[in-house]
Amino acid sequence: MDISVNNMLLFVTGLCCFGTGVTAFRRYSMTQSERLFIVGIAMIMAAIGIICGALDRIFPLSPYALEWPWYFGTSIGYFLLFLSSIMNSVEQFRILKRWSIVAAAVFVISVALSAGLPHLDDNRSAIVAFNVLRTIICSLVFFRYLMLYTSKGTRFSLLFCLAFLFIGIGYFIIVVQTLEAVELQLPFIDLMIRAIGDALLFVAFVLG
Questions:
Q1: Which pLDDT value is given to residue 1?
Q2: pLDDT for residue 105 is more than 60
Q3: Tell me, what DSSP letter sits at residue 119?
Q4: What domains sit in the chain, N to C, each tagged with a CATH number?
């Protein structure tokens, strides 16, 4: 029962990210904006990574270490979002676009090689390290869009700011619960909070 609820929440979160990526690519096809291309790749990577995290818990696929593309896809995807928010010139965006394509290729390779990679499910140090990294990345995005909101006051920057606040808190809760720093363990609370954050990302792109 627990695994099915966990999978459902992960799939919902992945679909939200996938919807955001598709929306970004749709707008890229109309505007040819390098930023939207980068956002599209970033969110599609995050979406596939999250879905890999759900599939990793399904028995037929359990021999595959799909937690690697899960960690990689979300970490690199969200980091690309941060980088895209601080780029200023057309040349910088073009360079970042090329690197985002390279990152996507490496991500695909990580999915293909997952059968030969070691599982991390029982490696507490690795789980803490990866989720601390994701918390830091989400915090960077949060503070960046908080600065953009305070300077420009747009609805888009506010929604992005709130989205990464929720996503970052979700990853931080994983760290706390993995370290058993609190006696009360609330199942799925981290996933529910992250699902809210990824839903806000989708809403931000739909509303513009």
A1: 37
A2: yes
A3: P
A4: 2-207 (1.20.1070.10)
Closest to 56 measured CA to CA, from 104, 125, 127, 136: 127
**Cβ 110 vs Cβ 86: under 8 Å:** no
Let me know how long the chain is: 208
Q: In the block, which residue shows the tokens 């839903």?
A: 199
Whether residue 48 contacts residue 114, with contact meaning beta carbons closer than 8 Å, is answered with no
Rounded Cα gap, residues 102 and 41, in angstroms: 11
pLDDT digit string, tens, across residues 114-146:
888 888 877 889 999 999 999 999 999 999 999
Reference 14, options 57, 44, 39; nearest CA is 44
State the pTM of this model.
0.90
At 44, list the tokens: 């599609």
Please check the confidence at residue 59 and state whether its pLDDT lies above 70: no
Task: Check: CB of residue 190 under 8 Å from CB of residue 167.
Answer: no
Q: Which residues of 174-194 are buried (b: 16+ CB within 10 A; e: fewer)?
A: bbebeeeeeeeeeeeebbbbb
> Any residues with CB less than 8 A from the CB of 16 and at least 6 apart, and which?
47, 195, 198, 199, 201, 202
Structure tokens at 121: 């499910």
